[in-house]
Structure formats: C-alpha cells, structure tokens
Amino acid sequence: MVQEKMKRPEKTRTVIDDEIPLRGVLKCHCGNPLSGAPSRGKSGKYFYYYKCRHSKHNNISAIKAHNQFLEACELMSLPSTRVRKIRTVTKSSLDLEMESNRKKVIEKRTQLQEVEEKLFSVEEKWIKNEINKDTYDRWYSIYNNEILNLKGAIERLSNDQSKAFSILEDNLNLLTDMRHVYMVSDTLQKREFVNRVFDSNLYYENGIYRTPTMLGLLSHNHLKMKEKGLLIYEKKEDLLDEDPLSGEGGIRTLDTVIPYTHFPGVLIRPL
Ligand SMILES: [Zn+2]
C-alpha cells in the first residue's frame, strides 16, 4: 500500500495515437510539446484536444488543428510546371554524373591493371629468389590493398543510377498534392513529415501554426498561409534556405532582418 502511494516515475515516452498524430511533435508557444487527450462530449462521443501542461496555454480541438494543417499542406503543393523543371534539372545532373562516373571507371580499370602487373612481377622476383620473404610480404600486402580499393571503387562507380532516378520520377508528382501525401500517411509518417518539413520546430499560438524553419521547396506559399490564418513562417536566417532539388538559392525576404524570433530558444543571428 505504501508502494502504491509512492510517486511513479514521470512518463516521457509519447504514446502513438492515430486520433492525435501531432501529440508530442507539435509544440506550445512556450516550447513544451503538446499532449493530447480525448474528452467526452454530451452525446457520449469523444472529442480530442491538444493541450499544454500550463493551464492557460493551448487547448485546441484536434479536428480544428488537423483541418488547418491539411489546408497548409495543400498550399505546400508545387505547381506542375515547377515539378517538370525539377525533373529536367535532376535528369541532366544525373546524366552528367553518370558520364563522369563512366570516365572514372575507365581510369580505375587502367590503374587496376598496372597494380596487378606490379603484383605479378613481385611474385616473379620472389619465385626467382631475387627478394626475401619480408620484402615480398610487404609489397604483396601493399599491392593487394590497392587492388581491393580499386575494385571497390569500380563497383561503386558502376552502380546503375537510372534506377534511383526512376524511383524519384515515380514520386516527384506527389509534390503537386501535398495534402494527399499527408492524408494517406500513417501516424508515424505524419510525425516524420512534420519533423522533416519544419525541422522539428512546429509551434501553435493564438490559433495559428508557427515555425521558424521550413523546407524551402514547400514554403513558396507561406504568405498565403499567413493570410489564411493557417501558418506563420517567421524565417530563421540561412536555415533550410537551399532548395535541395532545383539548386536555386532561396529568395531572401524582409523577414530575415528580424534579429530574434519569438520562438523559445530560437535566435536569429543579430545582423
Ligand atoms: Zn505552453
């Protein structure tokens, strides 16, 4: 009985619940991850909420939060012209890489042949008793290592990258419908989605999502998101600015001159 009254260790593990996928991923403006719980309505039906452990902070309906998030996802979608451009740029850079790899393979093959000849001549000298065993062993191990390295490099450089491209190509079109991407994801994928897109920095304050960090590729409509009261992207300087697929630099906007964000612990470098 005494044991029962003893304080249990505080639970830090996030329990995954499909009704509230953002639990523990979405943060309160104070920095605490929001927890989530059902609450029984008058009809007996359960309604889910995300809330902060500080009583006057967030306590938001999961349905509202989810709809708002889906609308934001819709605005993350890329126009199909943009996706076509990404495809072209990716394809041509992949072609260039494959061409350069082909040349490197030829070079490495020549080197391999040379080292194999050297190894052969060391073996000959050893057989003819022109060198002693220590010398033979030393050179054998040097040449043998070189041969292994070269063979490994040739194998790596000969990998068929067109397979990687065809996987990428199959999935590029998904970028035109990010709402769909999020909707068909399971709970763990949704959590991963939020962490990737917002670099684990998604907050909620005064009925709006906020973030200092957002994947450049998906943030092109961030002003629209703000206008619609969905998400405010208060950009942290230099982070995730580069568009990983197109190779274009991000466009600097006025909000990068704000020296501090109001997110806990997230400072913009003073100019
Ligand atoms: Zn809070």
Query: Uncertain regions: pLDDT < 50 for 5+ in a row?
Result: 246-261, 267-271
Instruction: Give the termini separation.
Output: 61 Å
Order of helices and strands: HEEEEHHHHHHEEHE
Q: Which distinct ligands sit in these coordinates?
A: zinc ion
**Helix count?**
8
> How are the strands of the biggest sheet laid out side by side?
1-5-6-7
- The shape is elongated
Number of domains: 2
Q: Could you tell me the mean pLDDT?
A: 85
The number of strands is 7
Q: Helix/strand-derived class?
A: alpha/beta
- Radius of gyration in whole Å, from Cα? 29 Å
Estimate what percentage of residues fall within beta strands.
5-15%
Outline the secondary-structure elements.
Elements: H1 2-5, E1 27-28, E2 35-40, E3 46-51, E4 59-61, H2 62-76, H3 80-127, H4 133-157, H5 162-172, H6 178-183, H7 187-197, E5 203-205, E6 208-211, H8 222-227, E7 231-233
The structure holds zinc ion.
Describe what you observe in this structure.
Helix content is 46%, strand content 10%. It starts with a helix and ends in a 38-residue tail after the last strand. The strands form two sheets. Strands 1-5-6-7 form a four-stranded mixed beta sheet. It has a three-stranded antiparallel beta sheet with strand order 2-3-4. It has two domains: 1-77 and 177-271, no CATH class; 81-167. It is built from eight helices and seven strands. The protein has 271 residues and is of the alpha/beta class. The radius of gyration is 29 Å and the shape is elongated. The chain has helices at residues 2-5, 62-76, 80-127, 133-157, 162-172, 178-183, 187-197, 222-227; strands spanning 27-28, 35-40, 46-51, 59-61, 203-205, 208-211, 231-233. The structure holds zinc ion. Zinc ion binds next to loops. Residues 28, 30, 32, 52, 54, 57 line the site of zinc ion.
